């Protein structure tokens, strides 16, 4: 047995709020122009929300309106000063992202992962935390004692195959009004127990708001930044992750689209070879149409890759295969990207 930890943040965590704003703006640009090229970054804190990055699009987007819609949906006050510092995509990068010459929009290494621990092909502890995050979002909408910000962490006992046996510490920090804390803590525990019982996992000890108080949260208590929760958006440390964030990026940005593709390949190979786990890595050079390398590793060792897979992972084919332009990225980024 060994101890291992993973964590998640709730929708109202400042970093995750920035992810959602980036993706909601991306959605609006793509609605009006499917060929929009976007790399939108957001920083928030202390009464201000700063939006920067690059956008080349025929769409006209009411940026303050979109930002305030997202804040309201998350449960935040909408009274923020919104600073628009967006520019256009570099013409040098645009040379490789036009429809007639669709190469990779960036260099980098992207990873996809799947395992056989759950029907979502994700680690059990990761799924438990994602379900808690979603359930908490529903809870705070029904009960005003619960506020939007928060995070949770599992420290569990694992066997030699990295299967979760039992949870030693379940840590939950949730923003609240600090009224009737005994009752709200009890609600949180019952919510966790309901989810863990689905997976036959027992919890030894709960650590709920370990400082003793969590009333000040959101952009008042902390600053937020797009892309600062890479591990949560990926696989919670159970797998390697690439260096690029997802939110605010159109599908030509392979650090997003190729990571989605790698995840689908990992799931396919997991089923095809009846694997316990599978990791796929894909690397690109900016402007080049084909990947530089594709590696598939698993519990049975390395799996050979043919030229057909290289063709499937060309940026233009990834976009077609995944129908990425039809996605609602705002919905995708709420709780971490690989929920399904």
Quick description:
The chain is built from 11 helices and 11 strands. It has 340 residues and is an alpha+beta fold.
Short descriptors:
alpha+beta; four-stranded mixed sheet; GMP Synthetase, Chain A, domain 3; 3 domains; single chain; 11 strands; 340 residues
Explain this structure.
This protein is an alpha+beta fold and 340 residues long. The chain has three domains: 2-10 and 124-220, GMP Synthetase, Chain A, domain 3, CATH 3.30.300; 16-94, GMP Synthetase, Chain A, domain 3; 108-118 and 228-332, GMP Synthetase, Chain A, domain 3 (2-Layer Sandwich). The chain is built from eleven helices and eleven strands. The strands form three sheets. A four-stranded mixed sheet has the order 1-6-7-8, covered by helices on one side. Strands 4-3-2-9 form a four-stranded mixed sheet. Helix 1 (14-32) packs across helix 2 and helix 8 (254-272) packs across helix 10 (315-322). The two termini are 29 Å apart. 46% of the residues are buried.
